[in-house]
Amino acid sequence: MKKVLLVCTGNTCRSSMAKGLLEHLLQEEKRIHAVEVDSAGTSVYFPEGANSNAIAVLKEWGIDISGHVAKQVDEYLIANADLVLTMTTSQKNMLQSTFPGYAFKITTLKEQAQVAGHPDILDPYGASLAVYKKTAEELKEILHHMVCHHKI
């Protein structure tokens, strides 16, 4: 089974939505048993749930992330993942610097998907529901492409 770790800053918005979306897409493609998905953040100081806007947006698509609890990325999570996908280039660089022995498996979501345009998934934290929806739509499109083309 392939293990994928999705990483953002606080693990309450982008990576929690990406985890829910990826699991949903894998389920639709009947590949849920082939890939284990987890998420974490680079700056998680205490466990908290997913952002209410993130929960609301995914709920509209029938995806429930209300049970999500944020956690800090650490060496154990990195070591046990086959692929670590960050939301930004700076997160990728920080993780590769912190865990140089695992740098080969750390990349950004957009690099792995080979998507053109802005290299980062922008953080919707503190923004409106509409911004969360836009972020979720971007994540869904990228993850769908990756699942369909077996890049995960």
TrEMBL record:
Entry superkingdom: Bacteria
Keywords: Hydrolase, Protein phosphatase
Residue stretches making up the Phosphotyrosine protein phosphatase I domain: 2-149
UniProt-annotated catalytic positions: C8, R14, D123
GO MF entries: protein tyrosine phosphatase activity
Pfam family, one: LMWPc
Gene3D superfamilies to which the protein is assigned, alphabetical: 3.40.50.2300
SMART domains: LMWPc (SM00226)
Stated family: Belongs to the low molecular weight phosphotyrosine protein phosphatase family.
Name of the protein in question: Low molecular weight protein arginine phosphatase
